[in-house]
Amino acid sequence: MSEAIVAALLLLLMVFAVIAVRAADLLAAVFVLGAYSFTMSLVWAGIGAVDVAFTEVVVGAGASTVLFLAALLRTSRRRSAPPSGLRWVALGVVVAVGVALVAVTRPIAPWGDPGSPPSRHVSPRYITQTVAETATPNAVTSVLADYRGYDTLIETVVIFSSGVGGWLLLRRRQP
User: Fold this and answer.
1) 3-state secondary structure at position 106
2) 135 Rama class: left (phi>0) / alpha (psi -120 to 50) / beta
3) What whole-number distance in Å separates Cα of residue 143 and Cα of residue 151?
4) Which of 42, 48, 98, 174 has the fewest Cβ atoms nearer than 10 Å?
5) Other CB atoms closer than 10 Å to residue 13's CB: what's the count?
6) Tens digit of each residue's pLDDT (9 = 90 or more) over 74-125
7) Which residues of 17-51 are buried (b: 16+ CB within 10 A; e: fewer)?
């Protein structure tokens, strides 16, 4: 995916975020957040993180949207107005976090840089040693299941726990 398309998708993400925050109708905000998650999955796929893209679609665009809709069935579609002073505090926090993120990510090597540490150390080992070390012929499967097995297991536990927690919060009580 070209850099221009990724940049356009990132701009679209900002538009979705502003619409979701400004929406007075929470149902509209839920659908915009679903569109945000789906667009984010396109960005993940565009930069080559297909496993993260799948997770974003399933959890972000799918399960989260369903849970938000279930929560809206039990509440009001209209949001309450925040205190006026809170808006300025929120704006300050957003600007501070944005500046911090830009400052922290500036020294990171550009995407696809063959001289970056992962390209020089980690990737060659995964490509050349995966079959010998894991006896798994598929490199993606060996990374997710063998090299990052505990990480993948904990991610699965977190997603499952979130689903059970959402179900427990939103279930209907029998009269």
Assistant:
1) coil
2) left
3) 10
4) 174
5) 17
6) 787 787 776 777 778 888 898 999 999 999 988 888 877 888 888 888 888 8
7) eebbeebeebeebbbbbbbbbbbbbbbbbbeeeeb
Entry pTM: 0.63
Give the C-alpha separation, 39 to 149, whole Å: 28
Dist CA 3 CA 133 (whole Å): 35
CB neighbours of 111 closer than 8 A, spacing ≥ 6?
47
SS (H, E, C) 57-81: HHHHHHHHHHHHHHHHHCCCCECCC
DSSP state of 112: T
Mind listing the pLDDT tens digit for each residue in 141-154?
A: 888 788 888 887 88
d(CA 26, CA 78): 6
Q: Which ranges in the chain belong to alpha helices (H)? A: 3-22, 26-46, 50-55, 64-73, 84-105, 117, 123-134, 139-141, 149-170
Q: Is 113 helix (H, G, I), strand (E, B) or coil?
A: coil
N- to C-terminal Cα separation, the chain: 54
